[in-house]
Structure formats: C-alpha cells, structure tokens
Design a protein that fits this description.
The complex is a heterotrimer of chains A (about 160), B (about 375) and C (about 290).
Chain A lengths: L2 H9 L9 H10 L1 E5 L4 E3 L7 E7 L2 E7 L3 E8 L4 E2 L2 H4 L7 E4 L3 E7 H10 L1 H27 L14
Antiparallel strand pairs in A: 1-8, 2-7, 3-6, 3-8, 4-5, 4-7
Helix pairs in contact in A: 1-2, 2-4, 4-5
Chain B lengths: L10 E5 L4 H9 L3 E8 L2 E6 L10 E6 L2 E6 L16 H4 L3 E10 L2 E5 L8 E6 L1 H14 L7 H9 L1 E5 L10 H4 L11 E6 L2 E6 L2 H8 L4 E2 L2 H17 L9 H6 L6 H8 L5 H5 L6 E7 L5 E8 L9 E2 L2 E2 L4 H20 L9 H4 L7 H10 L3
Parallel strand pairs in B: 2-8, 8-9, 9-10
Antiparallel strand pairs in B: 1-11, 1-12, 2-3, 4-5, 6-7, 6-14, 10-11, 13-14, 15-16
Helix pairs in contact in B: 9-11
Chain C lengths: L17 E12 L2 E8 L2 H6 L7 E6 L3 E6 L9 E7 L3 H7 L6 E8 L12 E7 L7 H9 L7 E7 L11 H6 L2 E7 L9 E2 L2 H7 L8 E6 L2 H13 L7 E4 L15 E2 L2 E2 L6 E3 H8 L5
Parallel strand pairs in C: 7-8, 7-11, 8-9, 9-10, 11-12
Antiparallel strand pairs in C: 1-2, 1-6, 2-5, 3-4, 3-6, 12-15, 13-14
The chains are: A alpha+beta (about 160), B alpha+beta (about 375), C alpha/beta (about 290).
C-alpha cells in the first residue's frame, strides 16, 4: 500500500488520533499493512516480535500455553484494538500467541522505530503512551472481570434451600 | 354521633366500681379481650377475661437493657408503660399458615386455609402502639397487596386505648409525634384517675359500648385531673430523638464510622426486631407430612438481623453485624419514610429496654448527627 | 358499625399459587432448563399476561419457591417459559420436572423494561449468563415491531461456549436485523468467536450513535456496573441505561422485607430500574 494510503489508514485509528502531523508522517513511513488469512498464527508466545499491530478489520485470538491444560484462549481483539504491546514496552518478547480467527487486516508499526519517534518528539510520545496506557487499563479491568469469573455457578447450597 | 375531632369528642365518666363490667359487656358482644397481664415477670399482652388479670398496682422500671416490675404505692390498673410485646402479636401473628398444597391424582391442588380469627378487643393500647398499628396498616393493608390475615384481624378489632399517666425512662414518643396522648384511631380512650376513668369516645362502635356501661356525665374537675395526669407523662419523658432531616442524615452517612462502633456492641440477637411494634419482616417455610402429599406454607416472623436474611446466589449480602445493624436502623428511621410516608419508629423505647447490651438508637443517631459527613 | 364478616368480600390471598402444568422442557445448557408452562385454570390462563422484565414465583410444593424471569413471549397456546439453572434444592426440583407435572406459579410481579421508550431509538441489549432469559421477551417484542426501532444489537456473554443458551434462535434474530454478538470468558481453540468480558463488546460497538441509543442490561451485578461504565464512556446518557437487579425475593409483593436495597423493594419497585435511580444504593457495600 502506498504511503498516503497507509497514512490515511493510520490517521483513522483512534490509537493515532491527535498525533502531530509530522509524527504521523514518520510513523506512516515505517508502517506496513498486513493481511492474515483466518487460521494464520501472527506470532507465538515467547517469540521476539518487533511490531506493534492495530487491527483494522477481522478478529484475533490471544492464547497462552499452560502445561497440562494446553492452549487456552484468554482474549480476542477486534477492529481498532492494539496487539503486541510488548513490542513497544516489553522488549519485544510476546506474552501470548496471536492467531487470526477470521480474515484479518492490521497495520504493523516497528516498536523500536516508534520508540525513537517518541523519544525525539515528546509531544508525539505523550500521545502514543497515553493511548497505550488507556488501552492497557481497559484490558486490565477486563482481565479482572474475567478473573472474578462472574458467570460461575454459585458456591455452596442455599442455607434454606432455594 | 360522629365524633372525630378531639375537641368535639364526648367524654363520659366510668367509676372504678363499674370498670369490671366492661369485661362482661365485651364478652357478651363476642369479643376476645386482649389486655396487659403479668407473665414471667413482665407485663405482656394476652387473652384475658376479667379485670383480675390486669397488673393492678404494678409498674415497670425501664432503662437501656433493663426491665423490672415494681409494686406501686396505689392500685392503678394501668400504671405502667409498655412491655416486650405489642399488638402485632395478634394482628400479624408470629406464626400462620398462608397456603396449602395437596397432591392429588390430577397433580397439585393449591388452597388457602380457612381463617376464622376471633373478634379482638384490644384493651390498654398506648398511644405509641396506636401509632404503630397505623404504621403496620400502611404495610399490610394500604399497599398494592393486602395481607388477608392482618386485614381480617384488623377490621374486626376494637381498640380501647389507655392514655399514659407516666413515662418510662426509655420512652420518647414525644419526639416521634405519637404520644403520650392517644388522639386518633381508637374506639375508646381511657385516662385513669384514682376514682375511675375519663372515657373519650372515638367512634360509633365506641359509643355503642359506652351505652351499655354505667357511666356518668364527666365533670370539669375530672377533665382537669385527667389533663394533669396525661401531662405527667409528658413531663416524665427524658429521652429525645432529633428527627430533623433524619432521612437524609442516615442515608447520607452509610459509611460513617459509628456503624463500626455500634457493630462492636451489637450481638445481632434480634431482640429489637421482635419487640418492635412496627417490624414486619417474615419468612415462609415448607412443612410437609411424611408422604409429602400435604404441604403447608408456614409464615413466621423473621428479622433482618438473622445471619442469612439477605442470602442470595451463594452468598450473604449483609454478612457482617455492621451492615445488618445499619439496615435495621436506616430502614426504621429513614427508608421507611420513602416506602410508607411515615417513620417506622413510634418512640415506644422497647428496643432500648430489651437490648441486652443497652444500645440506644437515639444515641446512635445523635452520634452520627454530631460528626456527619 | 362494620358489616358482619360473612358479608365482607374475601381478600385475595397473594400467597396462594395458581396450578401450572409443564408442557415442555428444553435443556439449554448443562444444568440449565427451560420449562414451558400453562395454567391449569382456564380463566387464569386466558387472562394471564405480563410485561417483559417481570418475574414469576415458581413453586415446588414441599421444597420451596424461587423467582424466575419470564423468559419468552406469551405463545398463542397461552404458555409461558421460565429458564432455570439448577443450583439449589428448589431449582433442582424444578429442573427435574417432566411434561405433565404440576407446580405452583404466582405472578407476574415487578417492574418491566421500558419498551415504550425505545421507539425511534437504537437499542442495545446486554446480557450476561442467566441474564439473557429476562431479556428474551424484549428481543421478541423488538422483532415483532422491528420497524419502530433503529439499530438493534444483542451483546451476550457466557462463561464458556457450551453455556451459551438459546443458540438455536440466534439466526432467527439475525434474520430480523438484530446484530447478535456473543462472547465467552474462556474457550478452547475450537471457538473462533469473541473471548473476553461483555463490556469489551460495548467498547467496540460500531457504528454507535450514543445520543439516540438506549441500553438494557441484565446479568451479574459487577458485570452490569462495568457495562454501564462502558456505556457512559461511549457517550450514552445514563438516563437511557436500564438494568434488572436481584435480591433475595420471597413474597414478591413487598411485604416480607427480604429484597430491600436501600429504600427500594426489588420485587415491586424493581427488578428493572433506570440505572441512576438504583446506582447510589448499588454503590454502597453490603447494603
């Protein structure tokens, strides 16, 4: 995809909103657009993956390997949502495996390059980190709710038998 | 005769020699008389048939966590205040069968058990308890659903109020605007003097009862003495509850530290709810015969202080004494107003007297008011 | 003088159940059964009606009584459905009933979903776990009068894929232009649907016109609170968010005192509330 088209795509993401123009240009210059057919493994847990992804369309499942339980799907992501935050914050080692559950398209931003852009331009850096924090906070709350296992059967029988 | 206004009501004089005949007349009219009588060192309300069963010459000494009967110097029939029981014992019986189910060849058949309650004459209803009956009326008969057991007993009940001529240390009816004088909702109201009773007629039914008694015209001096006697009750009240803005005060301070304070003292023993004349919580349990073919649904008094009262979906919402005490107090003094348009408290003081650790709700409210959020 | 007792009209006994007969049972998921009932008395059957969101008290004589949301619209054959999860003595007894068995039914009770406020609006229904049954009558009502509404979305979450209920109807609803989105808390690799909690689907909902959207939510209290949070974050006014609450309901008529949440009796002031009315009480711990 040509740079202008990429830039338009990128600029349309809530993740990139309010980014200063020149920072958006720099990001667009190194962003690629990736298409994953349903069933494609985007990256494996534990592997080094240099790119941060934002889903444009489709659905991505996040899995973790648990010895004795096998692969457990812990979350799915949809359009507008960010994938592989470790590429930007965590040194690039993935904490989940990502698999396309449907035909999926995503933009890929090299984490190291994005960090450089943020370092050189703190205003851009602020926006990017704010978006990251917001996305991770939302995911943290969602994870806590999953942890509460709210749909589990009530423990113990009613004292008066209801 | 249609006396409804206190100023318009007529009064008669019933000499003390004639008072015992009230019982005979009531029995002749088919009433089951319920009145104060001594049982297990307390003045309770129970079925009585003669004046001899009244606690004549007795009085009660009350304080937080304390109740004692003491002999009076005189032989007044009604020289005491209120004991551990209230008229809800008869209008809202502690135990009743509300429905039945029988297994037949065609499946379950549901029925309502026949209910043929006696026609009660409540003798000796204090003003606070009169107000309490009015409060319970709002719960059981004035809402969208009527409780047939309460309604059947209530509509027949004859109410003979007795105006207090003294106050117990735990009384605070004046703060709640419910007494000590009975002003409405009674058929007859008696004020006892050493030589007899000033009888105030409050309804047509009351007038008809008076017609069957030997009464005299009341003279101004007797009215004066009656007024003075009632005033004595007012003067003896020492306890106050400041009800100004109490609804918002309590519901706006649901996390006040005082709740932790009272929770450390409260035993969650449920006494207060049992003696309270307006508490109405109840539960229904299944009782079956051995084959399981005949089932009765038994209603019995319950209390928000019971540990599992708020059980839901595998857990108990109010599993701490703190939240249960808070529920009781905020319901009684605050939420009740939202629900029924009046306070749930009539100032009878029973909860203070019968609390084994002497918790005084007037003090609890004052403490929250002092350091409110 | 009051009239003699014999001449007074008998007061209806709100504790007496109607006799109901089981016409059909459907296993929706492990431990979850739908009972379809008809009332044995012909007059009662003919006159019984309810509004979506109301509940009935189902009675297994000798065992107990439980509140259950009425979970289907009234059929032409005058039967009504209740979906029950077997977790205690009474719900287990009800789940074990077979066609032709009799039980007791009292109701309908409580407040209902404000469908009258949905005309001309986009409607988002959010259900979690056994919160879907009380919303199903709303879905069916929306399907019936589909042209009266804008976009209609159902967001429904369950613990795992095999606990999703009413799955056979999703296509019917989709065909009626209802966007059915499901999610589960956990899944194995055979599931390619959404994984994650219900509020996430509301966070992601596109397109969304918050100024003309109304939301009905039913599920565990924590799930509802966080769904409201997401709704408000998306710009939906909190006055257009409605939830269905739950407490220990026994008499269902506001007399036994068990179901109180602050000044509200859940059985008669609720269970359906506009969120801002009930929110202050839900926010207090152990109330």
């Amino acid at each position: 995809m040509e740079t202008e088209a990429v830039k338009t795509l990128l600029g349309g993401l809530a993740f990139m909103a309010d980014l200063p123009e020149h920072a958006l240009d720099e990001c667009a210059a190194v962003t690629t657009v990736a298409d994953f057919a349903a069933g494609t493994i985007i990256f494996d847990e534990g592997a080094v993956n240099p790119s941060l992804y934002v889903v444009i369309r489709g659905r991505v499942g996040l899995d973790m390997q648990v010895p004795g339980r096998g692969r457990v799907r812990v979350l799915s992501l949809g359009p507008g949502e960010m994938l592989a935050w470790s590429a930007l914050l965590g040194g690039g080692t993935m904490t989940v495996s990502a698999v396309a559950l449907r035909d999926t398209q995503a933009v890929a931003l090299p984490g190291a390059r994005l960090l450089e852009i943020c370092g050189a331009n703190h205003e851009a850096g602020f926006h990017v980190m704010q978006r990251m924090a917001s996305a991770l906070a939302q995911r943290l709350v969602a994870t806590r709710l999953q942890l509460l296992d709210l749909f589990a059967e009530p423990a113990g029988a009613a004292p008066l038998g209801s | 005769m249609r006396p409804t206004d206190a100023l318009e009501r007529s009064n008669r004089w019933l000499a003390k020699e004639a008072f015992p005949t009230l019982f005979d007349r009531l029995i002749e009219l088919g009433y089951a008389i319920v009145g104060p009588t001594i049982d297990q060192e307390a003045i309770v309300y129970d079925r009585i048939n003669s004046v001899d069963e009244l606690p004549r010459g007795w009085t009660d000494e009350q304080a937080p966590g304390k109740y004692r009967l003491k002999r009076r110097a005189d032989d007044a029939w009604f020289g005491f205040n209120v004991g551990p029981q209230s008229w809800k014992k008869f209008l809202f019986p502690p135990h009743a069968i509300v429905a039945t189910a029988d297994r037949t060849a065609n499946g379950w058949q549901m029925a309502t058990p026949p209910d043929d309650p006696p026609k009660y004459a409540f003798l000796g209803v204090r003003a606070c308890d009169l107000a309490a009956i009015g409060v319970q009326d709002r719960t059981f008969v004035d809402g969208p659903y009527v409780d047939p057991i309460y309604a059947a007993r209530r509509r027949e009940a004859l109410i003979i109020a007795v105006n207090c001529t003294q106050a117990a240390a735990t009384c605070f009816c004046t703060s709640m605007g419910t007494g000590p004088r009975a002003t409405q909702g009674f058929d007859l109201a008696l004020t006892e003097l050493p030589t007899g009773f000033v009888v105030e007629i409050g309804s047509q039914r009351g007038a008809e009862i008076v017609d069957k008694l030997e009464t005299q015209d009341v003279d101004p001096q007797q009215l004066e003495f009656a007024e003075a006697a009632r005033q004595q009750a007012v003067d003896q009240i020492t306890r106050q509850l400041d009800t100004d803005g109490i609804r918002d005060l309590l519901l706006g301070n649901l996390n006040h530290p005082r709740w932790d304070d009272v929770a450390a003292r409260c035993l969650s023993c449920t006494n207060c709810t049992m003696v309270c004349p307006t508490c109405f919580c109840h539960s229904v349990k299944e009782v079956t015969d051995l084959q399981g073919d005949h089932v009765e649904r038994h209603r019995q008094w319950d209390t928000c202080f019971n540990f599992d009262f708020s059980y839901m979906n595998g857990g108990i919402v109010r599993d701490q004494i703190r939240s249960r005490y808070r529920q009781w107090l905020t319901h009684k003094l605050a939420s009740w107003i939202d629900q029924f348009g009046v306070s749930g408290c009539v100032g009878c003081g029973r909860c203070i007297t019968w609390c084994p650790v002497g918790i005084d709700l007037t003090e609890e409210v004052a403490a929250i008011r002092e350091t409110r959020a | 003088m009051t009239a003699p007792a014999a001449m007074r009209p008998a007061i209806a006994n709100p504790w007496q159940s109607d006799v109901a007969v089981v016409r059909e049972t459907v296993i929706e998921a492990p431990g979850v059964t739908t009972l379809r009932l008809s009332l044995a008395d012909a007059d009662r059957a003919a006159s019984f009606s309810f509004r979506p969101g109301q509940f009935g008290m189902l009675y297994a004589p000798g065992v107990g009584e439980v509140p259950l949301g009425i979970s289907d619209s009234c059929r032409a054959d005058r039967t009504w459905s209740f979906t029950v999860r077997a977790v205690g003595n009474t719900t287990r007894a009800l789940s074990a009933l077979r066609m032709g068995d009799t039980l007791g039914l009292r109701g309908p009770f409580g407040s209902s979903w404000p469908l009258d406020l949905c005309d001309g609006y986009d409607v988002v229904l959010v259900a979690g776990g056994l919160g879907l049954p009380p919303l199903r009558p709303v879905i069916l009502e929306l399907v019936q009068r589909r042209r009266n509404y804008g976009r209609v979305t159902l967001i429904y979450g369950s613990r795992t894929p095999d606990t999703l209920i009413y799955t056979g109807q999703y296509d019917d609803w989709s065909n009626a232009q209802i966007d059915v989105q499901t999610t589960v808390d956990r899944a194995d690799l055979n599931w390619t649907g959404n994984v994650g909690v219900v509020p996430l689907l509301l966070d992601r909902l596109h397109p969304l016109s918050p100024e003309r959207t109304i939301v009905f939510i039913c599920g565990p209290e924590v799930m509802m609170r966080y769904t409201v949070r997401s709704a408000v974050a998306r710009g939906i006014p909190v006055e257009r968010v409605w939830i269905s609450t739950e407490r220990n309901m026994q008499c269902a008529i506001g007399l036994c005192g068990h179901c109180q949440l602050g000044p509200e009796f859940i059985c008669k002031d609720g269970p359906v509330f506009r969120y801002d009315r009930i929110a202050p009480w839900l926010a207090v711990g152990d109330l």
